[in-house]
Model the fold of this input.
Amino acid sequence: MAEVKKTATAAKKAAPVKKETKAAPKEAAKVVKKTVTKKTETPVAKLNDATYATGKRKDSIARVYLVPGKGNIVINGKPIAEYFRRPVLQMIIAQPFGVTKRDGQYDVVAMCMGGGLSGQAGAVKHGISKALNTREPDLRPALKAAGFLTRDSRVVERKHYGFHKARRSTQFSKR
Done:
């Protein structure tokens, strides 16, 4: 009899496991559908006559596609005003077009990753400058004079042993 009870309890325990396994594929299917929709929404697939460049700043990397257009700038699938809400960051991204007098002539599609907003804005600016240089080599002197083609290699200094931060020491105590 004890064996019969064990098998009955084992059957009861096995039943909820089957229900969980049935629910898991439904959730997995939802996740797959979401990722598929995200992949189809990326504007990279629509870029035919694009010039590609990679920009870097601090810990940020930006993949920039430059297409002839009306001056729309899309970053990570969002318009520039929505992604970079601070006007200073928007101004930083628009600088290469202002220096070369190409305002409103190119659309920009950029994918940023890593770092913060300031680093990402600098990375997009660097990528736009490199893409403009590739597309129109005559613009190189203006971009070079403004310093937009040079990668700003400054990064955060690491924390050192015995310090609070990279250079911040302990507070001095006379006694």
User: Anything to note?
Assistant: The two ends are 81 Å apart (CA to CA). The chain has two domains: 1-33, 44-146. The longest strand covers residues 60-68. Residues 44-146 form a domain with the Ribosomal Protein S5; domain 2 fold (CATH 3.30.230.10).
